[in-house]
Structure prediction request, 347 residues.
Amino acid sequence: MSERRTGHVTLQSIAERANVHVSTVSRALDSNPARPVSVETVARIRAIADELGFEPNPWARSLRTHRTRTIGLVIPRLVDNVIATVFESAESAAEARGYQAITVSSGDDPERFDNATQRLLDRRVDGFLIAAARLDDPTIDRLADRGVPFVLLNRGSSDHVWFHADDELGAYLATRHLLDRGHRRIAHVGGVMNTSTGVDRQRGYVRAMKSAGLPADDALILASDLSIDSGVEAGNRLLAGDDRPTAIFAANDYVAIGIMAAARDLAIRIPEDLAIVGFNDTRLSEAMSVPLSSVAIPLPTMGREAMNGLADLIEDIPVQSKTYPAQLRIRASSAARVGPSLVDGRP
Prediction:
């Protein structure tokens, strides 16, 4: 077996070895050549390239194809288990499709999001996978107007292509579960307002309360930035008074864990004095001393399929939006019954 040569291997050196013109080598090594090369010639040239240890120059290739094979991943927060789970699968899918992912964080701030997308455009990314979109987001609309390929992940905006879970159904199931356990005074600590996740999860909570003939008390609905600290703050506000709720549906597991910490500090027992349900069903939910009930969504599948959808858009293949199912995982934090069911058992 021949040993690979060391040093820089060029198209010219491969052409000399194969006794063909350098343009033939270029077309043989191109997955989508402008003019085809015979199968036999392609096989011979690629075998020589592999023997010599040839590594293609991505920058030279991008000049020919007008693509850099890079994708911008725009996320709201770097420290988030949910985002990490989604984007690990997205990055693996990008690599499998021959793309390099560049990840930036917007901090869920519209100005930072706009600046982040512009920086990535300056680096000539081929498209965007965006998990930081807000409803009717002007930055998203500008990308669409410019014809930049992108898909939205875990959030939606207008009629742009998105891959996200059925957030309203998940919230509805979580709240109905608490109603079924006999709770009447149920609070909701929501997510970032003006996002599809924040709006849809609150909508599901309100719909479930109304289905049981109960009002959605504005005093029991709070917003958060989806962090543990914001859960602690919301928990202190809701639980410090005498007329506190007996159950809380939180917009994600981090917020739920923060509420549990606030309850602990106020000597409120879970689940004896307070039931809690989270969202996203992270690994933390099962690992808590009182395992947390949570709404499960297929995070790795969402990330992988969203990235494949983006790659298809970049390659001019039509893509349809997709909504993923949500399922409630009932654990000790909400399993106890406190009274007769307030629902008829139907979803």
